[in-house]
Amino acid sequence: MATTALTGFSMMSLLSLGYLTWDLMSPNQVENDTGRTFGGKSPIPHPPHIIFILTDDQGFNDIGYHSSDIRTPALDKLAADGVKLENYYIQPICTPSRSQLITGRYQIHTGLQHSIIRPRQPNCLPFNQVTLPQRLQELGYSTHMVGKWHLGFYKKECLPTRRGFDTYFGSLTGSVNYYTYNSCDGPGLCGFDLHEGESVAWSHSGKYSTHLYTQRVRKILATHDPQSQPLFIFLSFQAVHTPLQSPREYIYPYRGLGNVARRKYAAMVSAVDEAVHNITYALRKYGYYQNSVIIFSSDNGGQPLSGGSNWPLRGRKGTYWEGGVRGLGFVHSPLLRKKRKVSKALVHITDWYPTLVGLAGGNESLTEGLDGYNVWPAISEGKQSPRLEILHNIDPLYNHARSGSLQKGYGIWNTAIQASIRAGDWKLLTGDPGYGDWIPPQMLPGFPAEWWNLERHTEPRKSLWLFNVSGDPYERFDLSEQRPDVVKELLARLAYYNRTAVPVRYPSEDPRADPLLNGGAWVPWVGDEEEDNWEHIYQKKNKDWKTKLKLSKSRSFFRRLNTRMMSNRI
């Protein structure tokens, strides 16, 4: 269970941050107040079957109840009959969201605070972390994962079946072809990536992944006895990540959409919607539904370059603006005490770990030291969330903002460093948060690439922003100059969190990972007996001034050339 860790905050500073909308309590007091009981007793007579569905790159505006052009009747119905989470936060890219879900810890506490785990990096979820499925196994659950892993696989110890899942069926890397399961990490560095347990699943090539993963979930439900053992299924869809691929029948209903990427993207979302409908039907058919909890979540913001939309939020995937970190989420369950609600409770993806362990009957000792909170009373009963703030991230390796400095951070924090935190109503960003424009839904078939760079640079380059995201969710009014008192408090919080951070794990790529050296597939390439060396932080070396000059001159050219497509590779 996380602690509030409000060291150094005065009562007045908490008021200024909007914290004191409720009495300050310790985490234990919060849980007692919300009626949550630990000590090995679940608030539900029998531990529920848990189905966690994670979609990839689905934007805030890419679900029926937020969108006017994408139809998701199954998801809309589940959300309407459950609890919609409209103050729910995730991470801006794939690996960080998955790591925080699986560990209940911020990236700074696992060493994964920079970028993603690339296919050739000898890196994975740290072995000292007890994962959510491992905790659920301890509590008697049968645990299964289907879909995208993206938490490293350089050793067999890293594989899902070694990290708490009884079975695994899916892809290990970040992006694969939906039919061939071919995954590339650069020119000539391609390999097959579909796995059954710890073996390569060559025989399933040619089947559309959304359908294939749905069939596997239904098979698990059909062959398990719901009365004998509680079930945890983590369905991590590859969809709707690029490449934009779907069966033709899903594209036809969107033939009126002029933007081709949006049309294909919408078709992929519809395929996911149908998959969720079929899984929900199977839950009812095989006797799970009445004692089940279905959680739906996106993993990061949408990528407008590939058909996604976060409108009306600012920014996109790979950024710390709301469009990158504000997630789609809802909970559907007959076990909810208050249904058909929209929840404004502050919830973060790290909260699922202690919440699900609590639902499974785990006691408080199983969630000590986590950054997440048990938010079930807030979701099920409408009580206030125990969460007061969210550390979006501190990334010391990301390109430092040229305009940032310790001086601009009042001597508290170097604003050149990419970081973001939300506390109460307030959100602070420092460094380079990423592309920060507001991108409306795509109505045209296409337009010049230069249009993507028409970001509103109406003021000198900045390295610090402050928003009241409760009153200004679209981040249009920067209040950093009007409220230096709040800025200083949040900079102090960043400094506090930074003192708790572990070294960044971001090793150089290993040529031994090349699929050509491993039978044509992406598989573990390092023996479990080979020792790791995590004593060093993998810093990006500073370029000399000539290199900097060349980069500066070529920057505008490459922006036009690839319109920052790097974020699309992630």
UniProtKB/TrEMBL annotation:
The keyword Hydrolase applies. InterPro entries: Alkaline_phosphatase_core_sf, ARSB, Sulfatase_CS, Sulfatase_N. Residues 1-18 form the signal peptide. One of its GO terms (molecular function) is sulfuric ester hydrolase activity. Residues 48-361 form the Sulfatase N-terminal domain. PANTHER family: ARYLSULFATASE, ARYLSULFATASE I. Belongs to the sulfatase family. This is Sulfatase N-terminal domain-containing protein. It comes from Channa striata. The lineage of its organism: Eukaryota, Metazoa, Chordata, Craniata, Vertebrata.
